[in-house]
Amino acid sequence: MKIISILFALLTVGVLGSFAPELPVPPDSPQRLFYIQRSNNAHTVIYDANWQPGSHTMDPKDPVKAYWIRYADKGQIQELTYTQRVLAFGVDTQPIPGGYDMRLAAFKKRAIRVLTKNDHPIATTNIAGKEARLRKIFVQLAGPDCLIPKVAYVELFGSDLQTGRATYERFVP
After folding, report:
1. In this structure, how many other beta carbons lie within 10 angstroms of the beta carbon of residue 31?
2. Of 34, 24, 48, 49, which Cα lies nearest the Cα of 155?
3. Neighbouring C-beta atoms of residue 116, cutoff 10 Å
4. pLDDT tens for the 173 residues of the chain, in order
5. Count of CB atoms situated within 10 Å of the CB of 156
6. Contact indicator for 156, 107 with CB cutoff of 8 Å
7. Which of 36, 47, 29, 33 has its CA nearest to residue 115?
8. Distances (CA, A) of 147 to 83, 84, 138, 157
9. What residues have CB less than 8 Å from 155, skipping those under 6 apart?
10. CA distances for 77 relative to 37, 45, 69, 91, angstroms
């Protein structure tokens, strides 16, 4: 019984990881950078590198494509609406040496770098004080589902660029 109490205490303070609900994992893709999932449904926003035709070079005019996989419906792919691009899931990219600096519309403070490494695109950012490859973002929403919901917290999941070990960070925006 004492062991169960200790494990529960560790979980409630987030030491052992995320409380993200069980959500579908999108199929991997050679262009996949990362994805975002939210607590209100299984729909997933995918961020892929936008390769120029026949190359492993990102399109300088539109280097990142963002779109939905609508898991809570029939799993169909759907483009982001104008409002979704402007207020939440859209990206602003600026060229940097070796890639692009990317900012999400809903959280412009945190830079995400989009680079090509060994002919594969990767997204990197600071996760828990370490430079890491970003794999997934989970957003826990607070309150009712409305046009602009409040965010309780955000979780970042990735892997340390130096060691390859899993990295994790939870923060309140």
Report:
1. 17
2. 34
3. 16
4. 333 333 333 333 333 444 556 899 999 999 999 999 999 999 999 999 999 888 888 999 999 999 999 998 999 999 999 999 999 999 999 999 999 999 999 999 999 999 998 889 999 999 999 999 999 999 999 876 666 678 999 999 999 999 999 999 999 98
5. 21
6. no
7. 33
8. 10, 10, 19, 26
9. 18, 20, 137, 138, 139, 140, 168, 169, 170
10. 15, 10, 5, 18
Written as six digits, the tokens of 39 are 């607590």
Q: Which two tokens stand for residue 58?
A: 């990102």
Residue 69, strand partner residues: 44, 77
The set of residues, in sequence order, having a beta carbon less than 8 Å from that of 48 and lying 6+ positions away, is 29, 31, 32, 33, 64, 65, 67, 121
Residue 17 token pair: 């990881």
**Amino acid sitting at position 169:** E
What tokens does 152 get?
């309780």
HSE-CB at 171 with a 13 A cutoff on CA atoms is 13
Q: Which amino acid is at 130?
A: K
